[in-house]
Write a structure and sequence with these properties.
Radius of gyration: 23 Å
Number of domains: 2
CATH architecture of the largest domain: 3-Layer(aba) Sandwich
Largest sheet: 7 strands, antiparallel
CATH topology of the largest domain: Rossmann fold
Strand content: 25-35%
Distance between the termini: 65 Å
CATH class of the largest domain: Alpha Beta
Protein name: SGNH hydrolase-type esterase domain-containing protein
Organism: Rossellomorea marisflavi
InterPro entries: GDSL_Rv0518-like (IPR053140), SGNH_hydro (IPR013830), SGNH_hydro_sf (IPR036514)
Length: 403
């Protein structure tokens, strides 16, 4: 009798294990990898930390993905270097405050190794890292360089404080060793999250300083793309992630090296290669017109048409953004304003884009359409303030992404 009881109990245990394992497998099947955060990279400046690099130092950076998940992986870029990059140790943790993490950060591996070598011009993903995160969490990523890193592939003016410390403190939670340095994301250009399959895809914003969040409060995550992410989570059940590929002063036609590659040349790396990309919001043209008022509308429109063709060729929807007013910004001309209006009229009426977001309409002063509304003006006549960034996010018609 006792033997039969043992057999019965063993059978129940086996069935229980099978149910647990099946539950785990079902949970995995309900999840997939999605681009959750990114930044657009460029070459180092001629001076400062990006030029000098780091030696026997730890660089610590904070990013906010705005998405729930149970695993993360990071992407490091050496795109703008002619030499191999060696990172001796990488860690990641949930941000507590400033350079401090909630508990000690966990080690990040690459093909099972704690150090990673990235060839010149390349970028690489880490191994998956088990980590439960919510849409409210920010992530802290630390890179330790034992030897000389060399000049950095980076994103300047990150609107987020960056930190460094002497020695290897990548695995430490505390902030006492760290000091703030030139704001930027160094080598870190992407974070993917394994998230619920209700998240249908990522939307990349390919823009310039307005998209970068210039003149928003540092460390606040009050870029218009952050507000849009929050709105998608609240109103659309987190159906899409928003990836910010804005570079300050970036241009459509002929961008100076220190302002990043011109927008069409960034499509492959900054848009098509992003995990789960569904669409791209192109917010370009204002710097071309401001810095080169002689540029005619046809030239800008033709470049946008070429980008539309390239996006569709790669199976990506593309949405246009009207150019917002910029009078009082120091580079306003009547000639440029005429071009600005012609380009906007084409965007609104041509049907060339898969959708149009009309920032010009909501930001302009009704009494003088060449200027920003005072309540949305950061003070420089070009960049919106945080109220303006919030209004921009509210303007986006979320159903547009359901096509």
């Amino acid at each position: 009798m006792r033997i039969f009881l043992y057999i019965a109990l063993a059978a129940v245990a086996v069935v229980g294990i099978l149910f647990v394992n099946q539950g785990k497998e079902d949970k995995v099947k309900e999840r997939h990898w999605m681009g959750a955060w990114m930044t657009a990279m460029q070459e180092p400046f001629d001076d400062g930390e990006s030029h000098e690099g780091f030696k026997d130092q730890t660089v610590r950076m904070v990013v906010k993905p705005h998405v729930d998940g149970d695993q993360v992986r990071i992407r490091l870029s050496n795109a703008f270097s002619d030499k191999e990059l060696k990172v001796d140790k990488v860690s990641i943790g949930i941000t507590k405050k400033e350079a401090e993490t909630k508990g000690d950060p966990v080690s990040v591996s690459f093909d099972g190794k704690k150090d990673v070598r990235i060839p010149a011009g390349e970028r690489t993903y880490s191994d998956p890292i088990p980590m439960e995160i919510t849409e409210e969490d920010a992530l802290t990523v630390s890179l330790y360089f034992k030897g000389e890193s060399g000049p950095a592939t980076w994103h300047p003016r990150s609107m987020q404080t960056t930190y460094s410390a002497d020695g290897d403190v990548a695995g430490k939670a505390g902030k006492d060793s760290f000091e703030s340095i030139e704001k930027g994301w160094y080598w870190l250009d992407g974070v993917d999250v394994r998230t619920d399959k209700k998240v249908k895809g990522s939307i990349v914003v390919l823009g310039s300083s307005i998209d970068n969040g210039n003149d928003s409060k540092v460390d606040s995550n009050h870029r218009w793309t952050d507000y849009l992410s929050e709105r998608i989570n609240d109103e659309a059940d987190g159906k899409w992630t928003v990836l910010n590929a804005g570079i300050s002063a970036n241009q459509l036609l002929d961008s100076p090296e220190e302002k990043g590659e011109k927008a069409p040349d960034r499509l492959k790396r900054d848009v098509f290669e992003q995990t789960g990309v569904k669409g791209v919001i192109v917010h370009q043209g204002i710097n071309d017109i401001r810095h080169h008022p002689e540029t005619d509308a046809v030239t800008i429109i033709d470049e946008m048409k070429a980008m539309i063709k390239e996006a569709h060729k790669n199976g990506v929807e593309i949405y246009g953004v009207t150019i917002s007013p910029y009078n009082d910004s120091g580079k306003y001309t009547a000639e440029g304003d005429r071009t600005h209006r012609k380009v906007n009229a084409w965007m609104r009426n041509s049907g060339a884009f898969d959708g149009v977001i009309d920032f010009d309409k909501v930001l302009r002063n009704p009494d003088d359409p060449s200027r920003l509304q005072p309540k949305y003006n950061s003070g420089d006549g070009l960049h919106p303030n945080e109220a303006g960034y919030r209004k921009m996010a509210e303007t986006v018609k979320l159903k547009m992404f359901d096509h």
